[in-house]
Design goal:
Strand content: 5-15%
Structural class: mainly alpha
Strand order of the largest sheet: 1-2
Bound molecules: zinc ion
Oligomer: single chain
Number of strands: 2
Number of helices: 4
Length: 144
Amino acid sequence: MNVGDKQTSLERFFGKSREDERGVDDGKSATTEAETAKKKKVSLNRTYDKQYLKYGFFVTGDSHTPSPLCVICRVKMSNEAMKPLKLLHHLETKHPALKDKPLEFFEQKKGELQRQKQVLRATTSTNSAALRATHLVANRITKA
Ligand SMILES: [Zn+2]
């Protein structure tokens, strides 16, 4: 009887944790939420620090192994490379001219990168939106 009880509680435990993971995946579309989730979830892997943006790096990848992404050349580095020294090295060797740029410069680059990502994501849902627009136009033509 005891064994049976343990099994059901284990099943419940695993079932619950799987649900939690799904919840995190769903939250990916909202950047700020995903970033907060990353900070909470990741303990063993190197986490992204907002300070890294001054080296020209933004974070990408899943919540368990975030990877630094150069906002200039869009090169994605490994999770192990998520250290200020490595990131600074990339900036100094690949983009020496941008080394002394203010944080605002990289903020702007990051914004461009995020907008492009959103456009990419939006293209999948554009078809239905385009269809709806065609219907609207068609309706207007019929009325006229
Ligand atoms: Zn770069």
